[in-house]
Specification:
alpha+beta; Rossmann fold; 5-stranded mixed beta sheet; DNA-binding
Amino acid sequence: MMSKPTNLPNIYVLPTRLNDSQRADIVSNIRSKHYTVVESPKDAIIFIGDVLGSKRALLELRFLGLNTTDATTIKAPAKGTKILKVAKLEWYAKVIVEGIDADIDDYIIYNGIYPAKSPFNNQPSNTVTPKKRSASPPTLAEKQAEERSRSESILRRAMAATHQAAPGTRHLRHKGPSQDSHPSQPFKRPKLISQQSTDSQEEAERVASNLPPLPQWVIKKQKFSCTRSTPADPPNQDFLDALFKIRLNRILISDEIGVRAYSTSIASIAAFPHKITHISQIHALPGCEGKIAALWYEFTHSEPPGRLGVLEEIEKSVYYKTLELFYNIWGAGAHSAQSFYKQGFRDLDDLVEHHWKKLTRVQQIGVKFYDEFQDKIPRDEVISIRDAIQNHARQLLPGAETAVVGGFRRGKELSADVDLLITHPRVSKSRDVEELLVPLVNLLEKEGLITHVLTIHQPSRFVATTSGDVWPKRSHHNFDGIPKVLCVWQQPDLREDEEGDSQMESLDEKGLAGKRKNPNPHRRVDILFPPPRCAGSTLTSWSGATTFERDLRKYVKEGKYWKFSSEGVTDRASGLRVPVGKEKGEFIGLTEGDENNGVEVDDNVDNRARREDGEWIGWDVEEKKMFKLLELEWREPTERCTG
DNA sequence: CGGCAATACG
DNA sequence: CGTA
DNA sequence: GCCG
């Protein structure tokens, strides 16, 4: 009605929850009252928006490139410090629309100031509660459990029911860094130590003559990592670790080709049996050229040795640290990590508090068990999980056989998850094996062993038809995926149920009288159900490592023009399945028409040959048949550690 | 300078 | 398309 | 980033 009551600084209207025309209306209405509304957030002091809380306001400003901290958390802001104010949209409704004369200060929900500049403000502000440690060095399990316990109870309370839990509290461990250093352009690489170009020819030859002889695969420049031995403990582990970090960086920025390139180089160096002492050895390796050579030179000639300019840039970057944090959420990949960052989120708390409803169901589970899923699983626990699943499977399908694949099969002491194959030696059990999936999952859920099902992949041919039977149309080459379930596993709490005892050590969840929380960690478990025909191909496909698998498929494509997958082998030209031959005395991995020729197995007499860890030896036989078909020399899984 | 493993679900 |  |  009248002129403005006070002069206000420049105003910016936050776009939060407004569409373009709504926001434009607000802007013009405010301007009609002779306030100054700017279109660049940098020029504004007051921000008006549909914002509920101060934390959200902070995020909204960060999204606009204004990296402030809450002024109320700062002891004594220096005089003359610029304070950005965020006001509720209600101010607009009252003062602008209704014309009520009200003080904008009554509508401020957030005061933001720019944090003091510091040369170290790139580092994570890791001010979490200090660890309480016993005098003796903790075991791995203790460390993992202790790491977990600090954050767990709080998150758990926040998300007690995973499926539609309302988040409410903060996550302690993963407070993000306080300072934003998102690079708007890629880092400039610091000057590399220049290579000596003045080496005389004689000098180069003298050095070369003292080097160990090159392996045949190097001399022949054999590029496929599936054709050579790659042990778990390579002599150049330190340089490889640096390359792994660069590759992770490429993963995080979705540079898939860069990932492929570094993977090739890593696999090559990992297979090289000598400590690399001369740059000529790098150039000799397939998949390694100028770039890798330059990195190696810098790595070995830096002071102290082992430093890399690119890595130091990456490691001090809040941006990459944050992407890595988000990328480690099961169910989130590089794209989601980048998306979370762009929206202003910097730690798991931000996601829980401001983005929970937007997360997929499996991402919510991934956040809920973030710490436990980072923890590695010792071999003996892998075996006990295998045994439990196998025992239940045999209740439903006598004679079922299992194999642990993944890193475990490659010999790793600690596994990220458990990958388990279940099949049956008798070829005629093909459908029984695939149809085992749902009943087994139901049984394990009932027993409380499976706590969450993340995803189930069932072959389409088992979609029930009204007439009853399965095998709809594509039965002749039924070549869908291998049925599998990805789930969360927890060993039951086996402690005695003594009551009112002093043993209730961890009463962190007070109020839950009587209910003691199961202290066993949640584990990621994948169970696959290959039909007997696909036992060999699935075993090979799931034994890895990743680069070994990629090279195997490329090798088969280039050498045979075949397509290899966990379901088997097809000819690319004809599209027909390439059958796995039947060896004498063996009985699975047959072709379609041979199903009736399977050797009978007495399910009650289990005298089949087994390995030390209890696994059926027949698995290896199936895999050897597959390698033979592909004209590939079979290698121990422990020699497939291509990284 | 094009190509880089292959498959299925949400 | 993104993720495994 | 390396290969054909």
